[in-house]
Amino acid sequence: MGICVLRCPAADKPFKREKERGRKVKDLKHLIYFEDLLQEANNELVAQAQKDGMKCIGYMCENVPEPLLNLPGCFSARLRAPRTGSIDVGTYYLTSFLCEYSRAILERALEGGYNFLDAVVTPDGCTMLNRCVENMDVLQALGKDKEGFFIDYMEIPMKADYNGLNLYVLQCKNHILKPLAENYGIDISDAAIRKAVAEHNKVCELIRAIGDFRKLDNPTITGYEFNVFCLASYVAPKHLIIDKLEETLEELKTREPDPKPWFKARVEVVGSEVDDTDFIKLVEESGAFVCCDRYCYGSLPGRDPIYLNDEEDALTQLCSAYMYRGECPRFMDTVTMDGRRSYVDELAKEYKADGIIYQQMKFCDPWAYERMMGSHILRNRYDWPVLAVDRPYTIGSSGQMRTRVQAFLESIDIKKIQKEG
Fold it and tell me: Quick one: three-class SS letters along 82-126?
């Protein structure tokens, strides 16, 4: 309730935040509601769905096929640690050389912040997530007094090929579908999977349609606003947000932008996990417009619809889609690595970016290597202005990051002038 009281003045002044950014357009109707959802892992829609008898399945990586956690009778919640303060206890168990995301998640679990979960499914996406969940399990930080609660690990292939697909399918059967059926009686049939994929696609199509307004020369939605709606689609039961996403889409069709674009340059943000809306807000308050989001928790390709045919079983098709479209640096075959850079280049062109911000959470080992190689290749082979940065899990109002983004935007301006001259 305290959060609601603090935010009420903003609700009474719908133009306030936009005026602070130098804009005059009215806030989107559901923006504040979705912002409030992101303030807690156990948000009001999670509580509502559980009250209706559904099971909440937590996960922490894009390599877990999301529709499998949204079968009839259950729903997914991608774990975050909003409003993170001290992570001293998480650091004690995981050391300061692991990424702050894993330490913040463990800290929140030890505080009891995830006691609402009915299960956790995690892949071996990286050693840091493994150690985080292992500590949760050993320290009995989850599942207290929850009958049927389980934690399960999945092994994810490192190459996108036939053998990798067979492994993926087997892991999903053994570590998602089987325990869901045995512990909670969830329907794991082919028909149930297809139904879950259809609902997943509905949300994806809405998010992507909302995101398409970023392609306009004078966009009717900011990168921050889009980030809020997209992020909420990962942490709230999908069937409870579809109506609000539909209303937002209709609202954007008639929303009038400012007479002139409010930003200095359009940037694509690329890289590791971003579930902190303050990072996108900081970039935009520095004068950029985040027109494109190729990062974990983003919409590209995370909100690509998954279309199934009637010839193959749904599970195999779903795993194939996740494996072959995956942009995670865990996949290390040459074709996939080259594809990650060309995909960023294609998106930057499609969304009319002027430059690319390649970010990586500090101590995130998989993305540290990928950022180094990716930023070099995008700069030298594809001729994009690139700002490569590492950042903490929650950035707040970092003056250093703001200065770096502003300097990057000035360099883009200089290059434009040089080309025109």
Answer: CCCCCCHHHHHHHCCCCCHHHHHHHHHHHCCCCCCCCEEEEECCC
